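lol forgot to send this yesterday, sorry. struct tokens for the thing we talked abt
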């Protein structure tokens, strides 16, 4: 008993109309027909005419033919017809409702003509979801900023009322941490921009010694209960205490803070954490060393997103530091062993200036 093969045209038509995305197809020189599938018609609220001569493909209503043929291709600005492009635009349904549509365009070379294929996906609900997510994040960011401001105010009150030097020092650190948290919340999109390579650095002269001294003081105070001694060594320059680097100061402070925090948390109790910065020809070198060791299974992905061996860690500190270093044209290297502990080195090249 022979098996009857499915007709190719039936298979193609079945696939054409069963696809959930809208499809719009026309040839380069056919001016009177634009073919669409059922999903396209539903997306825009139209009842599309159907052929009954075996093709079974939809054809746009005449009043839409000229608009589609003139407007959609122009959106892509296609000097090279073989080029594939995509975009997201707002379009209007028959009932005047606005929808957000993602469009992919491709070209297929047929026997006689170029075939333009457009795939349209209604992403209105995704756009709405993104809007609601952004609104929730805005509210959360606002509330956290309020708490951070409260910390600053309470710390300032303690500083004003206390005669105890240790209490005053701790309150100063709390006040500064609250201030830095507010700064970070104001620039929380930076992480996303760094990941996508779209971040534009705001360069200025950053006093690295002053920056690192403040971070070291903060973590020296918090690590005393574990007997950890945090040592910061700066290079003695002829002009005094300062080493300046032209970079994004807030981002660089995040970089140093992340690495020093990680080093303190990973250090065995009673051991020393050493932080240093120095100028070399054409770049600045920052290093932090502790006697902890990075587990061997994490070393290959240590500087990557969510790589952590901490029980409650997120794996973002070293990853964010790497992104910041790379945004400045630099890099982070590390060495880790049971004998020598762990050393991270950040190399930051001096920005090139035209003579």
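and heres what i got for the seq, position by position
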């Amino acid at each position: 008993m022979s098996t009857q093969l499915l007709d190719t045209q039936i298979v193609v038509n079945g696939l054409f109309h069963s696809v959930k995305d809208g499809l719009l197809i026309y040839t380069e020189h056919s001016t009177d027909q634009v073919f669409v599938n059922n999903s396209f018609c539903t997306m825009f609220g139209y009842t599309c005419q159907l052929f009954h001569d075996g093709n079974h493909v939809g054809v746009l209503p005449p009043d839409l033919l000229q608009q589609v043929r003139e407007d959609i291709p122009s959106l892509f600005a296609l000097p090279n017809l073989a080029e594939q492009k995509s975009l997201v635009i707002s379009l209007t349904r028959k009932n005047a409702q606005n929808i957000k549509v993602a469009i992919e365009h491709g070209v297929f070379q047929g026997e006689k003509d170029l075939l333009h294929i457009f795939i349209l996906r209604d992403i209105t609900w995704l756009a709405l979801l993104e809007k609601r997510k952004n609104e929730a994040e805005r509210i959360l960011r606002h509330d956290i900023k309020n708490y951070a401001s409260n910390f600053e105010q309470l710390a300032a009150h303690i500083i004003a009322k206390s005669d105890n030097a240790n209490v005053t020092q701790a309150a100063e650190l709390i006040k500064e941490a609250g201030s830095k948290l507010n700064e970070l919340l104001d620039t929380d999109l930076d992480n996303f921009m760094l990941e996508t390579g779209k971040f534009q650095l705001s360069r200025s002269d950053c006093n690295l010694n002053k920056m690192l001294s403040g971070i070291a003081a903060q973590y020296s105070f918090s690590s005393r209960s574990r007997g950890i001694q945090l040592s910061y060594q700066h290079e003695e320059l002829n002009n005094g205490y300062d080493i300046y680097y032209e970079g994004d100061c807030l981002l660089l402070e995040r970089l140093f803070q992340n690495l020093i925090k990680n080093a303190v948390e990973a250090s065995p109790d009673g051991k020393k954490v050493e932080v240093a910065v120095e100028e070399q020809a054409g770049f600045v070198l920052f290093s932090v060393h502790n006697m902890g060791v990075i587990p061997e299974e994490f070393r290959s992905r240590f500087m990557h997103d969510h790589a952590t061996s901490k029980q409650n860690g997120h794996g973002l500190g070293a990853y964010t530091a790497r992104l910041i270093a790379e945004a400045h044209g630099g890099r982070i290297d590390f060495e880790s062993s049971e004998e020598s502990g762990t050393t991270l080195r950040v190399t930051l090249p001096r920005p090139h200036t035209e003579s």
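The chain has a mean pLDDT of 77. anyway ping me if u want another try
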